[in-house]
Amino acid sequence: MSRSPRVVVVGSANVDLTTFTDQFPRPGETIFGKDFHLGFGGKGANQAFAARRCGAEVTMIARIGDDLFGQATLDNFVSAGIETRHVLITPGVSSGVAPIFVDSAGQNRILVVKGANDRLSPSDVDAAADVIREADFVIAQLEIPLATVFHTLELARSLGVRPMLNPAPGHVLDFDRLKAADFVIPNETEAETMTGLPMSDSAEVDACARFLLDKGLRQVIITLGANGSLHAAPQKITQVPAFEVTAVDSTGAGDAFIGSLACFLAEGRSESDAMSRANLYAALSTLTIGTQKSFVTRDRFEAEWAKRS
Length: 309
Known about the structure:
Number of helices: 11
Structural class: alpha/beta
Helix content: 25-40%
Distance between the termini: 22 Å
Strand content: 15-25%
CATH class: Alpha Beta
Number of strands: 13
Shape: globular
């Protein structure tokens, strides 16, 4: 394409407080952790960083608090080259935070306190309509109010822009309101929460995807961790294999997939090609501790893609 891909992310910005431990504590148990890291996160911000690292021009629409984390979050966006004119500081409200616990196998458990993220409103999105109109994709998640999520999908559709929804954290949703999205992208746990269907094997994953299509969703992508990802459209269901890595920290891998996918699709690649590339981009993010700082540059990605593809 003649210009860089353009992606708008409407979503959350958090500060991640990550503790590493050999095992998770049982109820009522106190144990010693091995290490601690403070970093920037939030599903929206993570996806914006991934798209930006892949080469897209990215605008973030979000709310942050007026506490000590707010300005630091804003500065973090600026340092990455993400447009921040629609990142709004909210007086009297804390920034979002996410305590994260990671075990020795690289698995994580996350508790999110939404803070200012819960104040992002449909009118905040409307104020950015001119920016959305120029985008290739608009991405939303569920760490902001549902009314704002649905409004974002519908506004983008009305402006001729392709909306993408990551229904995370898992939530029971109104399927009719999801029909505006070009892509709905849950992981296995989120898909199970949305549908109430089991996801214990590939046949059940296929059945869940077909259920979502039968509800009127345009396209569904289910991310499957070490098993890659699955693309479901009315014409067919295709599984795209993963790339083998030795994971250190899987935190943010789903966000890496979605942000990079938006960039790859905006470059004009087919769904299967873009998903394969996003599978690799997400896999590479698990090789380093942290979320945004684990997302590789486009040059690093292309070098790995040339070796592995």
